[in-house]
Structure prediction request, 655 residues.
Amino acid sequence: MIVTERFVFIHLHKTGGQTVNRLITECIANHKHIGYHYPASEVPAEDVQLPIVGFVRNPWDWYVSWYAFNRRPAAMSPLFHVVSAGGTADFPTTVRNLVELGSGSEKSAAHRERLRGILPESLGSGRGAGLTRSCMDSLAESGEGYLSWLYGRMLDDAHPGGRLIGRFEDLRSDLSRILAGLKVPEADAMDALFDSGPRENVSQRSHYSHYYDDELCNLVASGDAKLIEEYGYEFESVKPGGASYEYSAAWTRDKRPEFRKLLDRDESFLKLNDSLDVEPLRRKVELIQRETWASSDRNRMFKVHSHTQSVALVHFEDYRHERPEYQDAWEDFRDELTPIIDYIADYYDDNGFVVRALLAKLSANGEIPLHTDAGYSLMNSHRIHLPIVTSDEVTFSVGGKTAQLRAGELWEINNATAHGVRNTGADDRVHLIVDWMPNRYGEPLSTVLRPDDATDADEGAANEQMLAALVQQARQLQNSGQPDRAEALYRQVLHFDPSHVVARNLLGLLCLRSRRFQEAVQHIERALSMAPDDAQAHANLGLALKECERLDEAIAHFRASLELAPGNIRVLNNLGGLLVLHGSAEDAIPCFREALRLEPGQAELHFNLGSALLQARRYDEALEVLEQCVALRPDFAEAQNRLQRARTMLGMSPS
Prediction:
């Protein structure tokens, strides 16, 4: 629950609440956190007249999402533990137990009694994921399915301030509409942040209808009828009638599936399907502009791909602890890609998610030489090719074997072995390439993205001590010349705690050193918004703003740094140099003089002061300072030149 001046946001589980939390936290300065998954009854008395804002979700989809999240060993809640028999029950059994938890059956009564014994007496401990012992009595009295009861508990329709409810399926548009209606001043900023953030896309499991048989579908329809009717939800089936899919088995640290390329069924090529309909995708590909293909960087980054061009759909960096980044092009191709991704999900037993996807064009008479891929995600995912435009003149080689991949055939290839492609034809070849990563492979867990709504991480799972240890480890990696791995750890810390000032500032500094100046500004500004008295952050931001040619702002932050921590020689020198660059040499001179007072033996500081004095036409003083500089460093050629200029301006003969 977050209270703002205009509304109270209440996070109903599995409805995009982490996204809304992030928008509020980063955009609305005067907000206060009350508690995690707190219901309407916990709104502070002084704020009870504010309207509640919340979101709901299609019940059939909600139960699948809830199951997917809670079945992870690190996230198993007391509720899930009871209704799933400690994680051993399958999806239909678990969901049936949950939907009927408030019923009068002996089994449901036993489940409630067991929960009374393990749920906390009151909110605040975090152990109950928003539930307390008394909830079991309320649930039994409601006569509703679990989600309907939870919806009523969290988003009470009798709340004095009223309520504004949006649909998870329309999160972006409904949130914008609600904020506009409440005249929230930060609405535009929240809209912009929503658009600039990672795209949320449930491609990490199949469509929810895959997991329901008719009996379970009807049970949800009955138990949550009121909610379904109120928001116009329907059960949308995208599977053959009467069929259902088994949600893949849960795992533990002692028992987990071992990853194998091509599922150990072949060493080079594995055909997944003979004849997918790629005609809609082919027609859409033909509309891609030449400029769009030409803007790709894969051919510039990797020599072996110099004859290729690509359009990124989903992107994921190795060791980055974030959700895959869904690009704008994904939205353009969503309708054509969805049935293909669903087929891939089904083939791999719904265990995994799309970690990377792109459209790849190999030019006519072009070649991708034999090579072997590397990197964590590439080695631990299934590399899948779907030819869209091809011909008999295209030959694929993998592990010493060759094959011709026809349009509409779906293949996994072993990219851990030497592989390459030759196109001797007169037409370009276009493939859809998808990397499908199992989400329960390997140790440690943090190196593989969590399945389904990964941003909905357990509150309290990442304590301050753990985060501090990760930051320290990242610093060591950065100091040892491993900035990429350091960045991954900083991002992991920020995944758990977006308001972690130290990680945010250090990530900004890392971006600064890697010359990603705009990104550096964004991270350091956010760090300063949370800790405005951080002198070093002001100094770092000044450096980044300077590189972005925002000189006035850079000067202001250098001055702010010195006000908070006077006597920092590096900041004095940077401020002085920036003032000279800005044409304010007179203002720069005191900065350099103060730096020299603190560090009188620095030739560079003498040079900078002498140069500022020259620009200010104070030639006598410049001559004295530059002579001291040359005495300290006789080989300082530029200082010799400036000294000669000072003598010339004073009408002196060259020495």
Observations:
- The CA atoms of residues 72 and 250 lie 8 Å apart.
